[in-house]
Amino acid sequence: MTADTTTKILKKGEIVNETYTVDFFIGQGAFGEVYRVKHKFFDDLQVMKILKNESTEKISFDEMANEARVLAKLTHPNIIKVFNANTFTKNGKQYFFITMGFVSGESLSQLLKRKIQLPVPVARKLMIDVLRGLDAAHSHHPTVIHRDINSDNILLSYENDSPVALLGDFGISMTLGQDSKLAGAGGRYLYFAPECFWNCYLPSSDVFSAGVVFYKMLTGIHPWEYDFDSYRLDDPEDVSKMIHSGRKKSCKDPSLFNEAIDEKLEGVILKSLETNMEKRYRTASEFLRALEGTCNAEPIPENYWR
Questions:
Q1: Half-sphere exposure of 241 (CA within 13 A, CB side)
Q2: What torsion do the CA atoms of 105, 178, 209, 273 make, to the nearest 10 degrees?
Q3: On the chain, which terminus has fewer CB atoms closer than 10 Å, C or N?
Q4: What is the mean pLDDT of residues 56-78?
Q5: DSSP letters along the chain, please?
Q6: Residue 148 is among the residues annotated as catalytic for this protein
Q7: What does DSSP say about strands 32-39 and 20-28: parallel, antiparallel, or unpaired?
Q8: Is the pLDDT of residue 78 over 80?
């Protein structure tokens, strides 16, 4: 997300529903605006995501509230906590919002912009964090499928010496679904498992998306090459055609771009990216166990995070 100089919904110091005081504007993404807010009663910092009006036309507040109640029960060190879903009215317009825990750090996408390619021990550590959080979601009753795993939705907390990766934005992905026509959603299609284009979402679909993220962390590129010049990137149907065309060939072995990837780790990565879901890891737990079984003899470089 990047800051925007256009008119924003809220201003610094503004109070929402007599509960949340706006601290500052963080940025905006495909789904809406993001603010850091302070809760009146709990005296802690939270993040408020205000959904764009066009993104909420096909859903009701009851739907969003029901999802939030499920997500609020997801408590895990590698999942950003969802606190509340509600609405507020300003200038005659009603806005939906979701509040969640504030993470002091940056997104994985921001880290990758600086580093491009991560050392194997670093990428492995971060992906294990993500998969532990995802495993908690997949093991929850009812099962929670994220449906929108990408490097923007993985946040890195720098509160301790060793950063912790947390998986966020469950609330938005679950409620809105992936048939959204919002600008910016097309880029996320690059992380979709094949079955997601037919509105089929399974735990193994999340595995595929996590595999794309892991491949990109280790290589600096996506697993498949796409012909971006021949398709309209603002048209979801065209983006879908582009992706299906690009994936007709097998993805290149990640060791071609990172010689530190050994044969066992490469096998784990490629299995997570199987386009045939029958050959892919079925759950985050399976992916996690396989990744934890790979060699991790090399330590994370000293002062890497500083």
A1: 10
A2: -170
A3: C
A4: 75
A5: -B---SPPS--TT-EETTTEEEEEEEEE-SSEEEEEEEETTT--EEEEEEEPGGGSTT--HHHHHHHHHHHHT---TTBPPEEEEEEEEETTEEEEEEEEE--SEEEHHHHHHHHSS--HHHHHHHHHHHHHHHHHHHHSSS-------SGGGEEEE-SSSS-EEEE--HHHHHHH-S----TT-GGGGGG--GGGGGT---HHHHHHHHHHHHHHHHHSS-SS---GGGS-TT-HHHHHHHHHHHTTSPPPPGGGT-TT--HHHHHHHHHHT-SSTTTS-SSHHHHHHHHHTS---SPPPTTTT-
A6: yes
A7: antiparallel
A8: yes
**Domain locations along the chain:** 15-101, 105-292
The class of domain 15-101 in CATH terms is: alpha beta
Burial bucket for residue 261 (CB in 10 Å: 0-12, 13-18, 19+): buried
Task: Please state, in angstroms and rounded to a whole number, the distance separating the CA atoms of residues 218 and 120.
Answer: 6
Domain 105-292 architecture: Orthogonal Bundle (1.10)
> What tokens were used for 242?
């582009």
pLDDT-based confidence at residue 176 (cuts at 50, 70, 90)? very low
Which of 129, 135, 148, 152 is an active site residue? 148
Q: Encoding tokens for residue 132?
A: 């532990």
Q: What pLDDT digit, counting tens, does each position of 99-150 carry?
A: 999 998 899 999 999 999 999 999 999 999 999 999 999 998 888 888 889 9
Based on its alpha-carbon atoms, the radius of gyration of the chain, rounded to whole angstroms, reads 19
Q: Contact 130/210 with Cβ under 8 angstroms?
A: yes
Contacts with 93 (C-beta within 8 Å, 6 or more apart), sequence order: 53
